[in-house]
Write a structure and sequence with these properties.
Strand content of chain A: 25-35%
Protein name (chain B): Iron ABC transporter permease
Radius of gyration of chain B: 25 Å
Shape of chain A: elongated
Pfam families (chain B): BPD_transp_1
Distance between the termini of chain B: 41 Å
CATH class of the largest domain in chain A: Alpha Beta
Strand order of the largest sheet of chain A: 6-7-8-3-9-10
Oligomer: heterodimer
Family (chain B): Belongs to the binding-protein-dependent transport system permease family.
CATH superfamily of one domain in chain B: MetI-like
CATH architecture of the largest domain in chain A: 3-Layer(aba) Sandwich
Number of helices of chain A: 9
CATH superfamily of the largest domain in chain A: P-loop containing nucleotide triphosphate hydrolases
Number of strands of chain A: 20
CATH class of one domain in chain B: Mainly Alpha
Structural class of chain A: alpha+beta
Main location (chain B): membrane
Subcellular location (chain B): Cell inner membrane; Cell membrane
Shape of chain B: globular
Bound molecules: adenosine-5'-diphosphate, magnesium ion
CATH architecture of one domain in chain B: Orthogonal Bundle
Distance between the termini of chain A: 38 Å
Strand content of chain B: under 5%
Number of strands of chain B: 0
Order of helices and strands of chain B: HHHHHHHHHHHHHHHHHHHHHHHHHHH
Helix content of chain B: over 70%
């Protein structure tokens, strides 16, 4: 097991810079997610750690060892590929046993090596030693695949293949577990249950894990910490709640959860509250303004919708008037699109039977608490 | 290339070995033949590197180097005629093949002609038969006592309808046994040429034949030119037909070169002819490459447009009847060989006088050795080319090694007889005395057939995703171990199909066998060749049939394999 540290890593493909000065410190046993839109450099970062790409500059440390001169096959990073990359000509058992066989191969004399090559080429040409058998069966049992040990991987479902890939990476007891969008090939339902499976296994084994995804919900629900990437840069690193409540840029606010982003200008201060004016709104925020022209971020669930004739104390909370242009039921919540000035704000309200639904075209009052108005 | 530095490992050693193999057994022989074409005397490059005495004599030889041999090409009547005749042969065969194939290809591609499947299947016959056997079959048919000659005489003709021992004979055999090489390219060309233009022409009131000549044909022209160039190269490089049929007074480069080396040990003459052959073949190959670049007639992306097939009864019947005439010639040729192999005697009659299996008995008692030799040599070449082709395609596909790709396609442009001469010349003395050994023979076969093998292993390699290999490395395997345990087994079907092809072509190979095989390693092709030379036609026929059956069986196995792969 070990920590992973990346210092000032840059990666260029010819003229194109895929990674700009990446710095990361991932602690031992941490579940760390790399989150960002497709093409932002997540896979490249992971491939540099695994040794499939060499950084153009910068250093990578795994378990405190600088790894520049360690080839990919000696880095002891277990990798779960996006496509799983299972060996199609081997059954489940042989897939999982592969790394153990290789380990034995590297520490054997030439005669024994031949025997190992033979059983790698065809499992009828030789038996695995007891230690390997037990270890493989143990991990297969752990991922609930012990009954399928003799199956060809092509005969398994997507979720099962995923677990074979995981078992194959885990059996070598890697210093770090690298997973590149491991759930993207699964259907919605399976994806949710695999999230739990992976998280549980990771917690169980306490293995340092780097998890690549473009799905913010996935990252938010699984990771201890998240690095959000954009165009080869790391934009922000933090815990899921950090990122959600204190996004450092509109990009993150938008990427991590749904946000209403309004541009405004600071118009003064009053009772310790910043007054921000924009097209069709005036808002007071309890947060600090670092500049005069800024973005106002409001999460949909932090807005309440009231009838236009209700009486609200606008000293205690922000009140904006708007017009409902659409209302949508999303299970237990109702989502409104409300026109305010030139903006369409998204508002989520919990729906309980008997509560009031505002139809389209109705004028409404929106309220937002001062603390919920983020300024960045 | 930091990566290379990091991965100096077993694989890079393999890469060096493969370069060394190509360098030693392909580039060095070709280069030294090139030198000999100036010095007129054998040059021992390897020896010069290891032995100072040889080096000084080599230097002496270079002092005597001159363009004398090159002048000879244009002054020596034999050489000049050889070049002219070879070019003429290629030209005639190409022209006739195209003329013959255009209607057939049109029929297959664009009409609902009856018996299309049968005709297509019969087009395989010429591809299975080695040319020296086809040439010999023509002797059985058109020779002085051939059955075609007999029919011709009965019908009132004088002498022979066609003297097989003549330019006309060589041309005819090559035409009927090489036409399938052009046919399928032409079919593809007719299939993809833009039908909407033709329809436009017809809408304007043009007649069918007018549309064909002024619209369809020009559209298919690039395909036609490309296949013409291919046929030219094949005909120009063919050794089997001329060696059996060309009479003494008909000089052809391939035969002339063979005689210079096998008859007179005239190194300078053989070398200059070899150089000329390689240059001509390479030039036409390059032309063809130029023509097909960017245009892929065989496999267009996407589905070809739906075309309306012509149903006109008269036209399709004429096309079908005509196509049958063409494909029946090679078929009858093979039936003649089959008939001769079971004949007691077969004189100037339509059919043999009696039937016997004695010739086969003789073959399986006295000539079993040749069959074994063929199988062993072919197996040797197969193993060697599998190993080399697998690694070559690995380096080409995974490491973008275009140099190796180029290297592995050089054998395509070197006629067999030219390559054989280059090898003999280079390895006939110490330090690496290999001429007359099975090793050199196997190496020669391997290099000659490597392009085909590489093509099929490369296809298999491309089908394996890169991340499967990376997964193996990630799990601790070195690149070499990953290649052996993961890539190799996954490529197996592709390798198997390719290696059967290698096996077949090696068994069919004439030029290299005739030139390089020592008596104790004589393969079937050489035995048949000797039998034909000694006019032992019955055993030649029986042996030919054995060879063809062997090829057919293997071809069937290959088809089965590739069908399985597709499923
Ligand atoms: N081998 C390569 N050669 C050139 N460009 C590459 C290569 N690998 C990745 N890239 C480029 O680097 C950028 C980041 O790619 P990647 O790390 O795969 O993104 P992600 O995994 O976040 O979707 C992309 O623009 C991609 O086109
Ligand atoms: Mg990616």
């Amino acid at each position: 097991m070990g920590s992973v540290i990346i210092n000032n890593m840059t990666k260029k493909f010819g003229e194109f810079t895929a990674l700009h000065d990446i710095n990361l410190e991932i602690e031992e046993g941490e579940f760390f997610a790399l989150l960002g839109p497709s093409g932002c450099g997540k896979t490249t970062t992971m491939r540099c750690i695994a040794g499939f790409e060499n950084p153009t500059s910068g250093k990578i440390y795994i378990g405190n060892n600088e790894v520049e001169n360690i080839p990919a096959n000696k880095r002891n990073c277990g990798m779960v590929f996006q496509s799983y990359a299972l060996f199609p000509h081997m059954n489940v058992f042989d897939n999982v046993a592969y790394s153990l066989n290789i380990k034995e191969l590297n520490s054997s004399n030439p005669v024994k090596q031949l025997a190992i090559y033979a059983r790698l080429l065809n499992n009828r040409l030789g038996k695995h030693p007891k230690a390997i058998q037990e270890k493989v069966m143990e991990i297969l049992k752990y991922v609930e695949l012990d009954k399928h040990a003799d199956r060809l991987t092509s005969e398994l479902s997507g979720g099962q293949q995923q677990r074979v890939a995981l078992a194959r990476a885990l059996v070598m007891e890697p210093a770090v577990l690298l997973m590149d969008e491991p759930l993207s090939n699964l259907d919605q339902k399976l994806r949710h249950s695999m999230r739990n499976t992976i998280r549980t296994i990771q917690q169980d084994l306490g293995i340092t894990t780097i998890f690549v995804t473009h799905d913010q919900e996935e990252a938010m629900s699984m990771a201890d910490r998240i690095a959000v990437m954009d165009k080869g840069h790391i934009v922000q690193i933090g815990t899921p709640t950090d990122l959600y409540s204190n996004p450092s840029t509109p990009f993150i606010a938008d990427f991590v959860g749904t946000s209403n982003i309004l541009s405004g200008t600071v118009a003064g201060e009053e009772n310790g509250l910043v007054i921000v004016k924009g097209d069709g709104f005036v808002l007071r925020s309890a947060n600090k303004a670092l500049k005069d022209e800024l973005n106002v971020i409001i999460r949909p669930e932090h807005v309440k919708v009231e009838a236009v004739d209700s009486i609200i104390d606008d000293k205690k909370t922000n009140v904006i008037e708007g017009t409902v242009i659409m209302s949508t039921y999303l299970g237990s919540i109702v989502r409104y699109d409300v026109q305010v000035g030139s903006y369409q704000l998204i508002v989520d309200t919990t729906y309980s039977s008997g509560s009031n639904i505002f139809e389209e075209g109705r004028k409404v009052k929106l309220t937002v608490e001062h603390e919920r108005v983020l300024l960045i | 290339m930091k990566k290379l530095k990091n991965s100096f490992n077993g694989l890079s050693v393999v890469k060096i070995l493969i370069y060394a193999f190509f360098g030693l057994f392909m580039l060095l022989p070709l280069f030294s033949v090139f030198l000999v074409s100036f010095t007129g005397q054998p040059i021992n490059i390897l020896g010069s590197l290891t032995d100072p005495a040889i080096l000084s004599s080599t230097i002496e030889k270079f002092k005597g180097a001159s363009l004398e041999n090159y002048k000879q090409v244009f002054s020596n009547a034999g050489y000049l005629d050889g070049l002219k005749n070879s070019l003429l042969l290629g030209f005639l065969v190409t022209l006739i093949v195209i003329v013959i194939c255009v209607p057939m290809a049109y029929g297959i591609a664009r009409t609902k002609m009856p018996f299309k499947k049968t005709i297509s299947a019969l087009c395989m016959v010429p591809l299975i038969v080695p040319t020296f056997i086809s040439a010999y079959a023509f002797i059985i048919m058109f020779g002085r006592s051939g059955w075609v000659t007999e029919i011709y005489n009965v019908l009132g003709g004088e002498g022979m309808l066609l003297n097989p021992y003549s330019m006309a004979g060589v041309v005819t055999v090559q035409v009927f046994f090489f036409f399938p090489y052009a046919l399928w390219t032409l079919v593809a060309a007719f299939k993809i040429s833009d039908v909407s233009l033709e329809e436009a022409s017809q809408n304007l009131g043009a007649k069918n034949w007018f549309t064909f000549i002024f619209v369809t044909f020009p559209l298919a022209l690039p395909g036609i030119i490309s296949s013409a160039l291919l046929i030219f190269t094949v005909s120009f490089s063919d050794f089997g037909t001329p060696i059996v049929l060309a009479p003494k007074e008909l000089n052809l480069l391939v035969v002339e070169a063979y005689r210079e080396i096998a008859g007179f040990f005239n190194w300078g003459g053989a070398a200059i002819l070899t150089v000329v052959m390689v240059i001509v073949a390479a030039f036409f190959f390059w032309l063809q490459h130029l023509f097909t670049k960017g245009k892929n007639y065989g496999s267009v992306s996407g589905k070809p447009k739906q075309q309306k097939l012509i149903e006109n009864k008269t036209l399709t019947r004429i096309l079908s009847g005509y196509s049958f005439l063409v494909v029946l010639v090679p078929l009858f040729a093979m039936l003649s060989v089959a008939l001769q192999s079971v004949a007691t005697t077969w004189g100037k009659d339509l059919l043999p006088n009696g039937y016997t299996l004695d010739h086969y008995k003789t073959i399986f008692t006295t000539s079993m050795g040749n069959i074994q030799n063929s199988i062993m040599l072919a197996t040797g070449a197969l193993v060697l080319s599998v190993i080399i082709a697998t690694f070559v395609s690995y380096f080409v596909v995974r490491q973008n090694s275009s140099k190796l790709d180029f290297m592995a396609s050089i054998p395509l442009v070197v006629p067999g007889i030219a390559f054989g001469i280059a090898l003999i010349q280079t390895f006939n003395t110490a330090p690496l005395h290999l001429t007359g050994t099975a090793v050199l023979l196997i190496i020669a076969y391997t290099i000659r057939r490597l392009p085909y093998m590489v093509r099929s292993t490369m296809g298999a390699m491309r089908a394996i995703k890169q991340d499967i290999e990376e997964a193996a490395i990630n799990l601790g395997a070195t690149p070499l171990t990953a290649a052996i345990t993961i890539i190799g087994p996954l490529m197996l079907p592709g390798i198997a199909a390719g290696s059967i092809l290698v096996f077949i072509t090696v068994i069919k190979e004439a030029s290299v066998s005739i030139l390089l095989a020592p008596p104790e390693w004589a393969p079937m092709s050489l035995a048949i060749f000797h039998n034909i030379l000694r006019a032992e036609y019955y055993s030649a026929a029986a042996m030919s049939i054995v060879l063809i059956v062997l090829v057919l069986l293997l071809q069937g196995a290959a088809n089965l394999l590739s069908r399985k792969q597709k499923l």
